[in-house]
Design goal:
Elements: H1 2-29, H2 36-43, H3 57-66, H4 78-89, E1 107-111, H5 121-125, E2 131-132, E3 140-141, E4 161-165
Antiparallel strand pairs: 1-4, 2-3
Helix pairs in contact: 2-3
Length: 189
C-alpha cells in the first residue's frame, strides 16, 4: 500500500509543479492590453485576408509597431482605417496603397452546394474556420464567421464559391415602430 501512496504523492507533486510553471508562463506571456500592438490590432478589421502582405491582422499590427510596415496597407480597413491608425500613432494619414487592392463593401462567401464536390480545399484556405463540411460531401459557409477575405476562391477547382454582399443584420421588433393591435372577438356564452 505504501508504494501506491508514494506514487500518488509523486504524481500530485508533479502536477502541482506543472501547474505552477504554467501559471508563471501565462503571466509572463500574456499580451499587454495597453500595448501599441494591441491598440493597432484593435483598429484593424480582423478579416485575416493577407492583402497587407502579412498572414493576418495581428502580424500586420506587429509589423506596424516595429516600423516594418506602413499604415496604409489594409484595403478592408479603407481610408477610415488609415486615418484611425494615423491618429493612434501620431502620423500623417496617407492614401490607401492601391497595389494592395481596393476597399469593398462587407461581403460573405456563398457556396453553390449543387456544384460543390467536397474537395476540402476551401476549408483549408479559410483563416477563420467559417467553412464546414467533410471530404466528398457538400460544404457550407457559417455566415456569421465569414470575413469575406476571398482566400477560399483561388483553391476551389470547380468555381462554386461566390462573394455576395453581407446582409444587414435583422433587428426585430423595430423599437420606434407603432404596435399593431389585433382585434379579438370575445363571445360570452
Amino acid at each position: 500500500m505504501s508504494g501506491v501512496l508514494t506514487a500518488l504523492v509523486v504524481l500530485l507533486a508533479l502536477l502541482l509543479g506543472i501547474g505552477l510553471v504554467l501559471r508563471i508562463g501565462a503571466k509572463r506571456l500574456a499580451p499587454d492590453e495597453d500595448s501599441v500592438v494591441e491598440r493597432i490590432n484593435a483598429v484593424l478589421p480582423q478579416t485575416q485576408c493577407a492583402q497587407c502582405g502579412y498572414p493576418g491582422c495581428r502580424p500586420y499590427a506587429e509589423a506596424i509597431a516595429r516600423g516594418e510596415a506602413d499604415i496604409n496597407q489594409c484595403p478592408p480597413g479603407g481610408e477610415t482605417g488609415v486615418r484611425e491608425l494615423a491618429e493612434l500613432l501620431g502620423r500623417e494619414p496617407k492614401p490607401l496603397d492601391a497595389e494592395r487592392g481596393e476597399t469593398k463593401p462587407p461581403q460573405v462567401a456563398l457556396i453553390d452546394e449543387d456544384r460543390c464536390i467536397g474537395c476540402t480545399l476551401c476549408i483549408q484556405a479559410c483563416p477563420v474556420d467559417a467553412i464546414v463540411g467533410a471530404a466528398r460531401r457538400m460544404h457550407t459557409v457559417i455566415e456569421a464567421d465569414c470575413t469575406g477575405c476571398e482566400l477560399c476562391l483561388p483553391p476551389c477547382p470547380v468555381d462554386c464559391i461566390d462573394l455576395v454582399p453581407r446582409p444587414a443584420p435583422f433587428i426585430w421588433p423595430e423599437p420606434d415602430a407603432p404596435r399593431r393591435s389585433i382585434p379579438i372577438e370575445v363571445r360570452h356564452g
